[in-house]
Every structure is written in C-alpha cells, then in structure tokens.
C-alpha cells in the first residue's frame, strides 16, 4: 500500500512527537510541524520526516504553512491539529487576538480551512486535540478574545471547547465532501505544554506529581487510533473521544447553532489578518 501523508502540528514534543514516531514506524509519510526550530528539526531527523516551522501566535505564519503544505503535498490523508497549550496572563497576539484562543483554536481553524481543497480531494481525516478541560470552558461569542473576563484556566478550557465545536461543524459542512473528523482528550500527559503558563496546573508537570501522569505514548494512543481506524465504522465523524470511546463534553459542545456561529466568527477573525496585509480590504 502507498504510504499516507500525515501532517501533525505541535509535533516537536509530547504526544505529537510520539504519534509522529509511531506513524513513521508504520511506514507513513509524516510531516512534522512545530514552533521550535531546534526541537522540530531534531524529531524530523530522528524519524526521517519532512518538517516545517510555524508559530501559531502569528496567523501570517499559519497561512504560509498552509501554502507550503499545498505546494509540496498534492494529497494529505490525515491532518492532526495538535498544537496548543495553557498560557499565562491575558496577552494579545500580533493579530490582536487573545493568545490562548488563537493558538488553541483560530490557528487550527485557519490551517484547516486553508487546506480544505486538498483535504476534501484526499478524503482526509482531521483530528483535533481537545481536552477534558473543555468542561470548565465557557464560550461567549461576543467576547471570544476574553476582553471582559479572563482567567488562565477558563481561557484554556474555552479553547478546548472551541476545538470540539469546530469538529462538529467541520463534519456538518464538509462530511459529505469526504472529510472525516474527530476531537479527542489525550488524558493528563507528562509534557511541557504548560511551561509558559501561570496556571496552578503547571505544577503538576514540574513536580513529583509528574510520575502519576500519562506518558506521551499513552496520550497519543487515541490520536493514533483515530488516524488508523475506519471512520464511520470504528468511530463517528464529528464526535469527541477519550480512551478510544465516545466521551461526554461541556453542554455547550452540543449546541449546533453555537458551532455554526463560532465558525462564522472565526472566519471573520482570521480574515482581519488578511485585511492588514491588503489595505484595500
């Protein structure tokens, strides 16, 4: 069988790097995407994979990444939107958006929609790394950048809730065109994804509690399963999973109208970045 092309963001460390190693061992063509040039290059060299560098805190870099991927890969079988993390105090990106929301949701939304022609033509699977933290998220369509109310943990939870809403709406809009998609909770994994955070959660990743966390390999298990099992047969497109099983999410995650509205508002938010590049709008 011809090797599939699997693009993984946030693949320079943690579950992304673990999944990249697994897919490489399975003979797939893996494309490693990360923010750190040094770490991304190291993983890519280890497994003999192509790699790209992009900081999702800057949407122009996400657009450039999408253009590079489209130019090099006429077919993308799996897109794993795995980049993300818990941030610190409220901070705006160069694009004017709250950093947690942009890195965890807007950048994934932009990358996926920019690649949509290739993804639909490839009958691709899009896998979005969410978290059980979606349970303490609260999505306010009129305050997506948390200007009115902000807390580190809630912002992260809201970003992870947005991942699930994006997944369901992606299925609704493009399922009939060949896209299969799922969001998943990897478990509480021993990685450094909370390194920049001021959240109390960060202590679990740096102390003796670390020994009770899942390994990156364990955390990557559901991602690997979703990418290798058969959608529509082994799992349901548009749904949210944990430990290879359907999982319960925040009640907002099941609001179809909210999912549609989030899609429209996300599209408008990423379009603002294009307006800055083209003063004619």
Structure overview:
The protein is of the alpha/beta class and 281 residues long. Helices cover 41% and strands 12% of the residues. The protein is built from 9 helices and 8 strands. The protein has an 8-stranded mixed sheet with strand order 3-2-1-4-5-6-7-8, with helices on both faces. α2 (37-47) links the parallel β2 and β3. Residues 202-212 have low confidence and may be disordered.
Distance between the termini: 46 Å
Query: Shape, please?
Result: globular
Helix/strand-derived class? alpha/beta
Kindly report the spatial arrangement of strands forming the biggest sheet.
3-2-1-4-5-6-7-8
Q: Unreliable segments (pLDDT under 50, ≥5 consecutive)?
A: 202-212
Helix content: 40-55%
Tell me, rounded to a whole number, the average pLDDT: 90
Sketch the topology as an H/E string, one letter per element.
EHEHEHEHHEHEHHEEH
Q: How many individual helices? A: 9
| Beta-strand content bin | 5-15%
Provide a concise account of the structure shown:
With about 280 residues, this protein is of the alpha/beta class. The chain is built from 9 helices and 8 strands.
């Amino acid at each position: 069988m011809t090797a599939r092309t699997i693009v993984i963001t946030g693949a320079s460390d943690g579950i992304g790097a673990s999944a990249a190693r697994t897919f490489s061992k399975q003979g797939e063509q893996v494309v490693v995407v990360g923010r750190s040039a040094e770490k991304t290059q190291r993983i890519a060299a280890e497994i003999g994979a192509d790699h790209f560098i992009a900081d999702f805190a800057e949407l122009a870099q996400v657009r450039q990444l999408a253009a590079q991927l489209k130019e090099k890969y006429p077919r993308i079988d799996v897109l794993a939107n795995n980049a993300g993390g818990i941030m610190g105090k409220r901070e705006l990106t160069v694009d004017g958006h709250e950093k947690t929301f942009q890195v965890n949701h807007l950048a994934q939304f932009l990358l996926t929609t920019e690649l949509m022609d290739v993804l639909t033509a490839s009958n691709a699977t899009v896998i979005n790394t969410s978290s059980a933290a979606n349970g303490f998220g609260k999505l306010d369509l009129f305050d997506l950048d948390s200007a009115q109310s902000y807390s580190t943990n809630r912002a992260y939870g809201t970003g992870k809730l947005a991942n699930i809403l994006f997944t369901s709406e992606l299925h609704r809009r493009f399922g009939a065109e060949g896209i299969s998609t799922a969001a998943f909770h990897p478990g509480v994994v021993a990685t450094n994804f909370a390194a920049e955070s001021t959240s109390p959660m960060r202590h679990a990743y740096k102390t003796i509690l670390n020994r009770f966390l899942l390994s990156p390999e364990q955390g990557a298990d559901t991602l690997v399963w979703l990418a290798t099992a058969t959608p529509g047969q082994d799992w349901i497109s548009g749904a949210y999973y944990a430990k290879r099983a359907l999982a319960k999410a925040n009640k907002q995650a099941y609001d179809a109208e909210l999912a549609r509205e989030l899609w429209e508002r996300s599209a408008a938010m990423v379009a603002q970045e294009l307006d800055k590049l083209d003063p004619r709008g």
